[in-house]
Design brief:
There is one protein chain. The chain has four domains: about 50 residues; about 45 residues, no CATH class; about 170 residues, Nucleotidyltransferase, domain 5 (2-Layer Sandwich), CATH 3.30.420; about 80 residues, no CATH class. The chain contains 13 helices and 13 strands. The strands form four sheets. The chain has a five-stranded mixed β-sheet, sandwiched between helices. β9 and β10 form a beta hairpin.
Length: about 450
């Protein structure tokens, strides 16, 4: 019971006792107070009133106030919480989801109390010495008008060969906050196109996309400040049917929604996660995005999935897969002299019958498809095992080795006997041969 609650309870009891004394003429001792009447006036249980009467109707604090239990339901999970705090992750929802997956059965309130009293584990934030300029104002867009996109980078520890860097493509609807996240081995332009197409298939095609001055999008600006679009990106915009707006250089607040999404992915989704391969990681990322889009978000004052379905999807266009767009999903690859193509750090075989030097490759889940350079035919498929060993295919090499055949009739014969069957461990328990021998 807090101090304010004790004061309120003391005031209620004192007022009720004074009223009872006035009715009795002003003379009423504690022993003469009728507990049943006092219960009717204060609505306090008889047991509580007996305890207060023993203390002279003085409300005292609990004797265990301020004493914490040595072992609680959170005791076995404090190490996990401490790791999150040392990584500057203080979001109770993120930590609570991880603890529940580990078997935690307590409440989120207890977790919040632990985080509050252990903030000394959180690394100190960078102090801003100089002013960052005048105060800005958040801007809003109409439903389906603007999507924001950006790259984020993380380090992956694979144990055996050390660490490598992976790229996270993020796109978010600026109006409702619906998000799309996909991971790639790198942030090349071909992966940017694949990520954008997958995001458009999930959320629709907006009027324009807001991004920063990345090399895959713009080569620079002319004397008047107009963007000089990358040639391949300009063709991609024309093929899909959307426009692009660039942010001011060194001004990340313009596309703060996707910047915050990248940070949220790093703090909530990536931290403490293990995965087998990027395909599994992308399946988990899609599931995580659906979970986040199905709950209420205060910053946009809506549930992103519902708002996007009811308003944004009425404005955005459906992504139509044409032959021109299919080329962006199947990047071109050169075939090496030994009949392999390299894709996502691994080599896959191409049939010998395909004589051209260029083919196109597409990975869909755990299958990799190799097409002709004009997508007219499917050459072969491979199972993506994410092993560094080369994956060969059927008929990858021509069988042109010479073979000798007999010039005279073959007259010499020999006999091959069948291999004896191995003795089994249970043969010593077979007593039928002994019965037959004794009989």
């Amino acid at each position: 019971m807090s101090k304010d609650e004790r004061n309120n309870l003391q005031e209620i009891i004192t007022q009720a006792i004074e009223e009872m004394k006035k009715e009795k003429g002003g003379h009423l001792t504690n022993d003469e107070i009728n507990l049943a009447e006092l219960q009717r006036r204060t609505h306090i249980s008889r047991k509580k009133l007996r305890h207060l009467k023993a203390n002279g109707f003085v409300v005292k604090p609990n004797g265990h106030t301020g004493v914490c239990k040595q072992n609680t339901v959170l005791s076995g999970f404090t190490g996990v919480v401490d790791d999150f705090l040392r990584n500057a992750v203080t979001n109770s929802n993120t930590i609570y989801s991880k603890l529940v997956s580990l078997g935690y059965g307590g409440s989120k309130t207890q977790l919040k109390h632990y985080i509050f009293f252990h903030k000394d584990l959180v690394p100190a934030k960078r102090e801003i010495i100089a002013r960052q300029g005048s105060r800005g104002r958040r801007y809003k867009t109409e439903p389906g008008e603007c999507f924001q996109m950006d790259w984020g980078f993380i380090k992956v520890d694979n144990g055996s060969t050390g660490t490598y860097r992976a790229a996270c493509f993020a796109m978010i609807c600026h109006h409702c906050g619906k998000r799309y996240v996909e991971f790639f081995p790198d942030a090349k332009q071909e992966n940017l196109f694949i990520g954008m197409i997958h995001a458009f298939q999930s959320m629709g095609v907006p009027k324009y996309v807001l991004t920063d001055n990345m090399k895959s999008v713009v080569n620079g600006r002319d004397a008047e400040g107009h963007p000089l679009w990358n040639h391949d990106y300009a063709d991609f915009m024309k093929a899909v049917g959307f426009s692009t707006k660039l942010c001011k250089a060194r001004h990340p607040f313009t596309k703060g929604a996707v910047e915050r999404l990248v940070r949220f992915v790093k703090e909530s989704f990536v931290t403490g996660r293990t995965f087998a391969n990027i395909t599994d990681l992308n399946y988990e990322a899609i599931r995580w995005c659906n979970e986040q889009d199905s709950v209420y978000h205060q910053c946009v004052d809506c549930i992103p999935n519902d708002e996007h379905r009811d308003h944004c999807s009425l404005v955005t266009r459906e992504m139509v897969m044409t032959n021109e767009i299919s080329y962006y999903l199947c990047p071109a690859r050169k075939i090496t002299f030994d009949g392999f193509v390299s894709y996502e750090g691994r080599r896959f075989g191409v049939p010998y019958r395909y004589t051209k030097r260029i083919c196109r490759v597409r990975r869909d889940g755990f299958k990799l498809y190799i097409y002709a350079d004009d997508l007219s035919s499917l050459l072969t498929t491979h199972d993506v095992t994410w092993s560094r060993a080369d994956s060969t295919c059927r008929d990858q090499y021509a069988f042109s080795q010479p073979e000798e055949f007999p010039t005279m009739p073959v007259t010499v014969h020999m006999t091959q006997t069948p291999a004896p069957e191995p003795d089994h461990a249970f043969d010593r328990f077979n007593f039928d041969p002994e019965v037959s021998d004794n009989g």
